[in-house]
Structures are given as C-alpha cells and as structure tokens.
Specification:
10 helices; two-stranded antiparallel sheet
Length: 286
C-alpha cells in the first residue's frame, strides 16, 4: 500500500508540475507588466524592427499633427530624417519601454474599459505613441511647426479569436503558484510513504526529464501555430516573430533548468540505491 501511495503521489506531483511551471512562466513574463517589458525590451534593438517602428511612429505624427498643406512638402524630408535617426535619440530606450507598458495595459485590460478606437478583439495592441512623441519633438525643434505628440498610435497584432486566449491566460496563469505548492506537497507525501526513497528521487528525476522534453515539443508547436497567423501589417509581423523567438528563448531556460534538475535527481536516486546496497552487503558480510 505504501508503495502504491508513493507512486501515485509522484505521478500527481509530476502532473501538477507540468501545469504549474508553464503557468508561472506565463504569469511572470507575459501577464505581469514588468516581466513583459523585460522580455520584449530587446526587440527594440533589432535593426529591421527599429526601422518599421520609426516609420509607424512617423506615420502617426504625420496623420495626427494637422500639418497645413502648404507645409507638407517642407515637413516630409524632416519626417523622413526623423525616421532614420529615431533609434539613435537619447530617449529612445525609455520611449520603447513606455510603448511596451502602454501596449501591455491595452492588451490585458478589460475590453469593456477600452476606448472606442482600440480594437478589443485583437490579441495584442502596440501603442507606439511614446515613439511618435520623440518624432514630434525632433520635428518641432528643427522647424517652426507646432507639432503635438499624438495620444495613441495603435498597431493591432493577432486575430480576433485570440483575444479569448488573452482573457483565459490572465485568469488562469496566476494559479500556477498554488498548483506548484500542491506539487511540492505531493512529492513530500511520496517521500513519507515510500519504502525505498531512492525510487522517489529517481522517479522524480525521470519525470522531470520527460516534462522538459514535452514542454519543448509543446513550445515549438505553439510557436509554429502563432507564426502561421497573419496580422497584415509589417510592424505587427516583425514584432510577432521576434516575440515568439524571445518567448522560446526565455522558456527554454526554464526547460533547461528542469532537465538539469531532473538529471541530478535521477543520478542522486541511483547513487542512493548503490550506496544503500553496499551498506546492506557490508552488514550481511559481518
């Protein structure tokens, strides 16, 4: 009976771990604003993405600044120059970080609280208004045009049916911590009930290795599924591809840590088995 209880507890703990770890990663890196900013901040350093962002910011300024027709030709070269130099401006990093914060708030807000101009059905909304503000300031400094930064410059990423996934993630991802506590309790019960505790260590280690492989396959499949969706916008497509790569790299570190821990537990279990066998053999020999 003790062996059955121990084996069942290990299996339950592994199943709960399979759910808890991805949920905690999602909560820390996507649902929580600071984690999302830290994960996606490096995307703003990609040269191709930088240029698309700059053009989108310039387009936002040009469409909302109300430049008189007589000054359009004068302003166009300055706007084009602003697009080229935007990423080199001193405030670019801060503006990109603020873009990510505003975008996260729009994406994870209750759709009923969003302003009318925000598409509440989109899975992700980038608001590049902070970058447009840098453009407006640069143009205003270089000319006598009284440009004002637009309040919002929105780029929608994803498809309408994906908004439901955002809402589910927001609700369920934070539950991963409670599930992780349950997994720890299950593993502790397995140790208490086990007749041979080395089997618990070895079972946990082997299970962790299997989970690492399963997470890798599931992560690759999810990334491929997202890559197949189309937003119909160059900036959106670049962000999507870079975001998927960043998520894969970040969660890959968690997978690697799980695999290392699993290998260590498996080796520890086998070592305890060997040492225990030798100890019993010495006792019998005496």
């Amino acid at each position: 009976m003790r062996t059955f209880v121990s084996a069942a507890a290990v299996l339950i703990g592994l199943v709960m771990t399979a759910v808890a770890v991805p949920a905690m990663w999602v909560d820390r890196n996507i649902v929580q604003e600071e984690g999302f900013v830290a994960l996606t901040a490096p995307l703003g350093k990609d040269p191709a993405f930088q240029q698309r962002l700059a053009r989108a910011a310039v387009a936002g300024v040009a469409s909302s600044a109300g430049i008189p027709e007589a000054f359009t030709e004068l302003a166009r070269p300055i706007l084009d120059n602003a697009a080229q130099s935007l990423t080199g401006l001193p405030g670019y990093s801060e503006a990109w970080a603020e873009t990510l914060r505003k975008s996260h708030r729009l994406t994870f807000a209750d759709p009923s609280t969003l302003p009318p101009e925000v598409d509440g059905t989109s899975s992700l909304t980038l608001d590049v208004a902070p970058l447009a503000g840098l453009v407006a300031k640069q143009v205003a400094d270089a000319t006598t045009l009284p440009l004002e930064a637009p309040g919002q410059v929105l780029i929608h990423i994803g498809q309408s049916d994906q908004r439901q996934w955002i809402e589910r993630v927001t609700v369920y991802a934070p539950m991963g911590y409670a599930v992780a506590v349950g997994a720890a309790i299950a593993f502790a019960l397995a140790f208490v009930a086990a007749r041979r505790r080395w089997t618990v260590l070895a079972g946990m280690g082997l299970g962790a290795l299997v989970l690492a492989g399963a997470w890798k396959l599931a992560g690759d499949a999810a990334g491929a599924a997202v890559a197949r969706t189309s937003s119909g916008n160059d900036v959106a497509e670049l962000f999507k591809n870079e975001f998927v790569a960043a998520c894969s790299a970040s969660f890959g570190q968690w997978i690697a840590a799980t695999a290392v821990a699993g290998g260590a537990l498996l080796v520890a279990g086998l070592a305890v088995r060997v040492l225990g066998g030798r100890k019993r053999a010495n006792i019998e020999h005496r």
